[in-house]
From TrEMBL:
UniProt cross-references to Pfam families, sorted A to Z: ABC_tran, TOBE_2
Superkingdom, natural source: Bacteria
Keywords for this protein: ATP-binding, Nucleotide-binding, Transport
GO molecular function, one term: ATP binding
Ranges for domain ABC transporter: 2-231
Protein name according to UniProt: ABC transporter domain-containing protein
Organism phylogeny: Bacteria, Pseudomonadati, Thermodesulfobacteriota, Desulfuromonadia, Desulfuromonadales
GO cellular component: ATP-binding cassette (ABC) transporter complex
Mitochondrion found in the keyword field: no
InterPro entries: AAA+_ATPase, ABC_SmlMolc_Importer, ABC_transporter-like_ATP-bd, ABC_transporter-like_CS, Mo/tungstate-bd_C_term_dom, P-loop_NTPase, Transp-assoc_OB_typ2
GO biological process: quaternary ammonium group transport
Length: 345
């Protein structure tokens, strides 16, 4: 449905380079990456709001690269609402109809349905000023969907909302996507949001696409150390590969296949690490002896740092286990993890 072919956009001081991406009809695709990676630039290029320097944007097989925004049938929703304060909610929602040349009876009927679907029938005569963040975002969704778009682009639609509304709108987005069956593409910083909503994910870094895959793929099998760190693999060690061993900080990690003689990176997620008083790990587990260096309580979980030789591992252990085991700083422990949970790049 959305196809980007070598998309390049040059801006003063920043460039998006050679982005290739295909989003299937009806798919929910999330674009992730740190601040300034170029996610919004990609979204605005698809919407026709930025000039594309090279490459192509196709939507539903049609070349949109040089089409003005109003000819693209693409809706866009921003985090900061951008509603007109002097217009009523209904006039805000209908504003796009004129812009897109779609002010027809059928469109007004569709908007009636949307207003019901989004649960905002009670506020259509109000002005945006005193609406809650959640209500404003519902109005923005109605406005973007009023023109019956083929694609809905969402630029961090949840990030300005307080946590209660965020949950609400997150669920609403999931239902809307299921109900409308159109293609959604959403920019977010938040991996959990993407895990909940998206079928597939693209991770951007410095204007380039670093990895595209299913949410599970990116989460469990990050392709680069950057993505590994981004998706929360907080244990990232530089390793020297020697035959089937990855050597780091005085420890050996046995690899499934020889890695050749070079340097690499080993990454493992804190929640994949288990602590025990005794070395009772099953086969297939890699285990190291270590000493607890720090315990930081964090609600139901404690962040426990364990030094094994020169390597410092970050783990998260549930509070109950920490208490029942009586773990304290300075305690000798064994740390283990399933070999398959670690990634070596
Ligand atoms: N219209 C523009 N003109 C010039 N520079 C721009 C324009 N839009 C974005 N940029 C620059 O492009 C870079 C990438 O911005 P972009 O907003 O795409 O990042 P992002 O990945 O969406 O980040 P964030 O998560 O903070 O929103 C930034 O350095 C930004 O200042």
């Amino acid at each position: 449905m959305i196809k980007l072919e070598n998309l390049s956009v040059k801006l003063p001081g920043f460039a998006v380079r050679n982005v290739n991406l295909q989003v299937a009809p009806g798919e929910f695709f999330a674009l992730l990456g740190p601040t300034g990676a170029g996610k919004t630039v990609v979204l605005e290029s698809i919407a026709g709001l930025l000039h594309i320097t090279a490459g192509k944007v196709r939507v539903a097989g049609r070349d949109m690269t040089r089409l003005p925004p109003e000819k693209r049938r693409i809706g866009i929703v921003y985090q900061d609402y951008a509603l007109f304060p002097h217009l009523t909610v209904m006039d805000n929602i209908c504003y796009g109809l004129r812009y897109f040349n779609q002010d027809t009876k059928a469109a007004r009927q569709r908007i009636g349905d949307l207003v019901d679907l989004l649960g905002i029938a009670g506020i259509v005569h109000r002005r945006p000023l005193h609406l809650s963040g959640g209500e404003k975002q519902r109005v923005c969704l109605a406005r973007a969907l009023s023109v019956n778009p083929e694609v809905l682009l969402l630029d961090e639609p949840l990030s300005a909302l307080d946590p209660n509304f965020r949950e609400d709108i997150r669920r609403l987005l999931k239902n809307l996507h299921g109900e409308l069956g159109i293609t959604f593409m959403m920019v977010t910083h938040d991996f959990n949001e993407a895990l909940y909503l998206a079928d597939r994910i693209g991770v951007m870094r410095q204007g380039r696409m670093e990895q595209i895959g299913t949410t599970e793929d990116v989460f469990l099998r990050p392709a680069t150390p950057f993505v590994a760190e981004f998706v929360g693999m907080k244990n990232i060690f530089e390793v020297a590969l020697s035959g089937q061993q990855a050597v780091f900080g005085g420890l050996n990690f046995p690899m499934a296949e020889p890695g050749g003689d070079k340097r690499g990176v080993l990454a493992i997620r804190p929640e994949d690490i288990v602590l025990q008083r005794e070395d009772g790990f099953e086969g297939g587990f890699v285990r190291y002896a270590g000493v607890i260096e720090q315990i930081v309580p964090a609600g139901l979980w404690h962040e426990v740092s364990v030094r094994c030789q020169q390597a410092l591992f970050k783990t998260v252990i549930d509070r109950k286990t920490v208490l029942s085991q009586g773990y304290g700083e300075g305690d000798a422990v064994f740390l283990g993890f399933d070999k398959d949970a670690a990634r070596v790049f």
